[in-house]
């Protein structure tokens, strides 16, 4: 049984991709791009400015950190369409993002398609591309196993069986949703087929977590009996995998005085962030007694 977690190594990327070094000092602000297009959905892009390591953070600063008025164009196999800026109110304040104008009925994300991204913001142009994989690791089955921890037998591990295509170089990222919670990524949210290429494999999926909350490292990975759990299992390309792999590693080493500086690997030159395509598969289980 393998646990869904990444080995402690850093990966290189293609020469055209930017490596962003994170230092514990104040640096010149960069554009931060969080962009994705999922199978069956419109693209979503969030633009903001990076903050210095010692910068204070409050709701006003967060609101002012968004980048407005950008021109964003997505290219889908030669067909171009622009994104519009929208906002949504949340408990923590307004969120600003760019997505397609549904009234113009652009194509939603399609596996196998390549998606170009062009952003013109604050006098500069940024270009990237991604693919929604058409061939990727998939979920075959899902189950759970009761776990006894500190005398409590109501904990449960989530386990899945996955299949992998015969060709090497498949990557996934996963999320879990527990009851009415949102989907959260796992603490180590990515996996590749280096060790299981072309073969089925049984693995344990840790519970996805809200990284803004304090983490109990003894029990965070477990669910509870009677939980309804949905897994969101996403095929991604290598660049998207490398971004989240190194970001997960950075998050999990934050505050460790003995760790080396982490290189967050993005695929949009001269920025922090990424543009990624996701194929999507869902599976749900109720953890009965």
Automatic annotation (TrEMBL):
Listed Pfam families: DUF4249
Taxonomic lineage from the root: Bacteria, Pseudomonadati, Bacteroidota, Chitinophagia, Chitinophagales
Protein name, per record: DUF4249 domain-containing protein
Highest taxon in the source lineage: Bacteria
Protein source organism: Chitinophaga costaii
